[in-house]
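Recall the central idea of this unit: under ordinary conditions, the amino acid sequence of a chain determines the structure it adopts. In this exercise we apply that idea directly, starting from the sequence alone.
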Amino acid sequence: MRAGDWARLRGPEGNFTLPRRCQALAFLSGGIGITPLRSMMRYIADKQLPYDVTLVYGNASLEETAFREELDDLCAIHSGLRVVYVLSGPDVPSGWKGKTGVINRDLVAEVIPDYRKRLFYVSGPPRMVLSPQDQLIALGVRETRVRRDSFTGYD
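Accordingly, the structure predicted from this sequence is:
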């Protein structure tokens, strides 16, 4: 294109955004998939919106857990935000009080007992997005209650 050429643009599209009506949400994230969910949580905290959000955030190690301090700070200033950290690598620190393993239906049912009433957002590498989605469906969560965002190139 050259300066002065016309172009047609369309606005951002998709459904990986906060619902207009405040409600109970569940965020499932792996690795870099935290990026859009962190943004939503920051917005909720900054505006003090009455959402109820549980984030289940999986990483191989504590060192790979991006934005951990910021997420903890957001939870400290907004009572409707909660984070459950899950480590799946071999080097879990001694004294670790969080969860270990992978994000699956058993873990979801344990840490989000009211999962049936929540709208789910699943974000991460493709493998991390598809597996929890299948796990949620196995739990009886309707597919229409699951939104997903895949970050290709990180598997």
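The chain has one domain: 24-150.
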